[in-house]
Design a protein that fits this description.
It is a single chain. With 344 residues, this protein is of the alpha/beta class. It folds into 2 domains: 4-118, 3-Layer(aba) Sandwich (Oxidized Rhodanese, domain 1); 138-343, 3-Layer(aba) Sandwich (Rossmann fold). It contains 15 helices and 12 strands. It has a 5-stranded parallel beta sheet, covered by helices on one side. Helix 2 runs antiparallel to helix 3 (57-80), helix 3 packs across helix 4 (98-110) and helix 5 (120-134) crosses helix 8. The longest helix is centred in the first third of the chain and has 24 residues, at 57-80. The radius of gyration is 25 Å and the shape is elongated.
Amino acid sequence: MFFKLATVAQRTQFDEIIDVRTPAEFAEDHLPGAINCPVMSDEERVRVGTLYKQVSPFEARKVGAAIAARNIARHIDEQFARHPKSWRPLVYCWRGGQRSGSMAIILAQIGWAAHQLEGGYKAYRHQVLADLATLPGQFRFKVISGATGSGKSRLLDALAAQGAQVLDLERLAAHRGSVLGRLPDTPQPSQKGFDSVLAETLRQFQPSQPVFIEAESKKIGFIALPDALYDQMHDSECLQVEVPLAARIAFLKRDYNFYLTEPERLITQLGFLHNIYGKAQLAAWSEMARGGDFDTLISELLSQHYDPLYQRSQCKHYPPVRTLGISALDDITLASVAQRLLHG
């Protein structure tokens, strides 16, 4: 063997991490900081797999070797040729097999200190799941709850700006956690991708300092929170923010402006409430959206849907230890509130 093996724990010791899996595999999830240099495209992998099953493993290996050799040569020309002899790459595929072995052996024969990740992505995924089962218990969370439109995410931003440890789950999940929480033109990550980013974020925190986090349900859009994190959140101190209705409406108009400028997109999302509200109610809300009467629309959505839902769910699962009144949700006010939370 011309190359050496490295463990998941050693992955930070290398100059570059190279994922040789297909673009689709890489898009679903990958090691933090990895670059994608596939030895086979998605279509090429399907072709080789079909040959393996329908013809023979030998025929599949012949075709696969030729494809891999061409792609590896291209990556050397386009990606790796600029690197000095001291460059130390870590190469991985699904489980440390032929794809990463092919790349690693050629890089090593050139003269670079190439290593193959032992167990590949599969070993890394096992480590992520193990970390998500244990890491949350190491931290003291401070959970921020409050009705929809209370600026909880913006308060987290203000806390982070002042140096606090903040775990913004909605940002990691690319979703705001409600029927209107889907972000425009921003798909949610895969569950595996979310898990990887979450685990990496938790690894950066110091257990000696609190971690501020927003009260969340078990799922944020299509993303499920790990059991250990969800349980730890429920066992943590909860601070409930209270904001006047007028300030909440003004804030939501700013924060969800993409819906206000595209009312049909808003109406489509409201359609997901058809099992809760009748056609007449949805039609009335749709008319408000098309007519630009957003103050009335938001007020009714809060009073009829979001606030009752909050009372039934959030207050039950996250009983507040104390409440904090916030008069407005502008940057200066939120910065002042964040300072009080950190130093008060």
